[in-house]
Amino acid sequence: MKSNNGIACAAAAFLVVMAIVLSPQAAAETIKIGIIKLAGNGPLYIAKEKGYFAAEGLTAEFVFFTGAEPISSAVLSGDVDVGATGLTAAFYNLAGQGSLRLIAPNINDAAGFPLFATVVSNKAYAAGLKSYRDLPGHSMAIATLGSTTHYALVLIAQKLGFDPASIRMLPLQSTPNIISAVTGGQAESGIVAATSAAPSLQRDDMKLIGFTGDVVPWQTGVMFVATRTANDRREMIQRYLRAVGKGRRDYAAAFIGADGKPTESSTTSDTLGLISKYVEQPVQQVKQGISYVDPDGRLDVQDVLSQIAWYKSQGMVKGEFEPKTVIDMRYVVPLPAK
Questions:
Q1: Residues 248, 324: one domain?
Q2: Least buried of 135, 172, 190, 333, by fewest C-beta within 10 Å?
Q3: In total, how many domains does the chain have?
Q4: Tens of pLDDT along 101-124?
Q5: 3 state SS of 324
Q6: What is the largest CA-CA distance in the chain?
Q7: Which residues contact 134 (CB under 8 A, 6 or more apart)?
């Protein structure tokens, strides 16, 4: 028969083993998040750095891409669990087929927050291309047809009353290609991420005519998952969204005032440093590309539906489907109608 000491030791050992097995770290579920290295993804970087994902039993792994469209494909294939990037025709096509579901907003293009910079070559600027109204009749370098930058240009054209078709689109696939084409004079203008444009603008290799959000605010980026994930891993998605929500609130506290305008606070400097680490850009460059996010994580549903309608009218999104089915209302919090 075992002694009391022996039983006590065995019990203690059992409790230690169970504590290890049941600890949050041991039970952590890995979640792969497909993103682009943008300052606007700050809420995600914050959630990882400050342990908000870990507190929800999640090990977050960022998988970085150079464009939005490949992220949609990666989510569909299962190479990443969640995509956080700009809305594109490619996303809407897959979502319309029932393969992807939008679960939360990410980045908004908004006044005062320089997300996309519209730039022109020095030669074109000298020849008179100095404003958005001067764009008709000129070439514009964008990532791809049906991309976020393409749609932003369309919104600007509609707002200012000129035909988007009057601009010759040059789909160049990547930001480096766009910047190279504009600085080299092969493209008269281009739209790129503001932080990516900053070095060339500082060297005066090209000129800035404006930031798109100052003309047309819109729901630019979202978070989405494969439909099978939305249906079968609901508890994981809820934990993910809680962690991101905490990161979003910290991001807003650092950069967004109660009036929705840019601000600075006691946490701004540290938060810029944290974001700089993940996007691998100097703090001053990051500061020039801080994007707006809704502090409460609300999606501009009406704007998303308007986007779908435009893409369908252009033949870029095909097939018949109810636009609202793209948005998974089990997870989405709608922004109140304007």
A1: yes
A2: 333
A3: 2
A4: 999 999 999 999 998 999 999 999
A5: helix
A6: 98
A7: 128
Q: In the listed set 214, 234, 268, which residue is the last one of a domain according to the structure?
A: 214
Type of residue found at 185: G
Do 256 and 315 have their domain in common? Answer: yes
Q: Is 142 helix (H, G, I), strand (E, B) or coil?
A: strand
Structure tokens at 329: 């209302």
pLDDT digits (tens, 9 = 90+) for 298-323: 999 999 999 999 999 989 999 889 99
Cross-strand pairs, 164: none
Distance CA 334, CA 219 (A): 12
Residue 14 lies in a domain: no
Q: Across the chain, where does the E strand assignment appear?
A: 29-36, 58-65, 82-86, 100-105, 108-109, 116-121, 139-142, 168-171, 189-193, 206-211, 218-219, 221-226, 298-299, 333-334
End-to-end CA distance of the chain: 77
Domain final position from 184, 214, 244: 214
Together in a domain, 155 and 193: yes
- Nearest Cα neighbor of 215 from 112, 134, 298, 120 is 112
* Torsion angle of the four alpha carbons 338, 307, 326, 77, in this order, in degrees rounded to the nearest 10: -140
3-state DSSP of 57-100 = CEEEEEEEECCCHHHHHHHHHCCCCEEEEECCHHHHHHHHCCCE
Q: Name every residue whose Cβ is closer than 8 Å to that of residue 155 and which is 6 or more positions away in sequence.
A: 212, 215, 216, 218
Is there a single domain that holds both residue 191 and residue 236? Answer: no
What is the pTM (predicted TM-score) of this model? 0.84
The answer to whether position 329 is within a domain reads yes
Amino acid at 253: A
